[in-house]
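Sample intake sheet
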Amino acid sequence: MAAACENAPGRRMSTSDSNSPAAPGTRENANTMSINGRAYIVGAYEHPTRKAPDKSVAQLHAECARGALQDAGLAKNDIDGYFCAGDAPGLGPMSMVDYMGLRPRHIDSTDTGGSSYLAHVAHAAQAIAAGKCSVALITLAGRPRSEGSSGTQARNYGANAPDMAYEFPYGMATANGYGMVAMRHMHEYGTTAEQLAWVKVAASHHAQYNELAMLRDVVTVEDVIHSPLIADPLHRLDCCVVSDGGGALIVARPEIARSLKRPPVRIRGVGEAPKGQMGGRVDLTYSGAAITGPIAFAEAGVKPADIQYASIYDSFTITVIVQLEDLGFCRKGEGGRFVADGNLISGVGRLPFNTDGGGLCNNHPANRGGMTKVIEAVRQLRGEAHPKVQVPDCRLALAHGTGGQLGSRHVGATVIMERE
């Protein structure tokens, strides 16, 4: 699992190269305090619903918060930090802390789309390390399925952004943007539709054991490439599901984590960074993961080959391939071959991924799947994943999310976790 070290302009390079897209995030340039071992994930909860026509978004947030508190063995009054993103109704944390009766002394409403909740894990760990709070609650919830919103329109990713007026007239939708990324990857590296399909095949092998997954049938490569074409070269089965639901996480100080009955999950390294249009010098072949991965690995003091399980944001099959390359699990351009070799299937491959079925098969609550990526990584580290997909003696896991449009502007966020 060698890290990519391409030297062509716009490709991922060594973090020692000042021209690399990853260079701004090297440890030498980082100005944030290290959070390695200074905060732990002590509670995790995924809402069981996939369609909630009878619940409000605020109610789903509250139910997720209650579930995470019960999982951690904590009470509502223990929470003194609260984190939410744009899916929270009303005025975000201002509205939600009032609705849930919380009394935090620290709040954060960072919104980076689907990567928000991985960024919140990082921010919660940093706030705890800085003494701003001791027990932080992070919640996500939404009802896109009940509301009839597929999340496919680009306007869902920042309608007021200054450059969106130049995109709207051309009608770019989310699937089109990811289709462009997939087509460029095929042109540059010879990636095939069959290789993309292997990402869905792996996810379906895992989803068959998840009784809550929206799509539980195991599919073949032929099933994927013969499903309707959505945005060339992406087929319907290359796209994630749309679901209601949500989830919550609780992050706490080390001494609190060790006093609880749940297996403590240590946060070892984090990274977050945006990737935009770069003034027109757009390069679709790499993502924000090329920046965040080196930051997180350096802080954690580990390398990609050490990771035993990976939760990778899977809005589309191409999303997974690009992120796997940028995080260093295979060389740039080799992602298609890596997944086609079965490396993502638990019990078979070198890097089991999304063992709950991920966004491709399980759920994609509020069109923001980053929360569930952390939750399943926590399950793996606790040894609580389904026995058929549990990674034996899983001690080191990575979760990565992409929020926004992989084909234009987005934010990547990486979290590396360890079972203590």
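Comment: The two ends are 25 Å apart (CA to CA). The chain has a mean pLDDT of 90.
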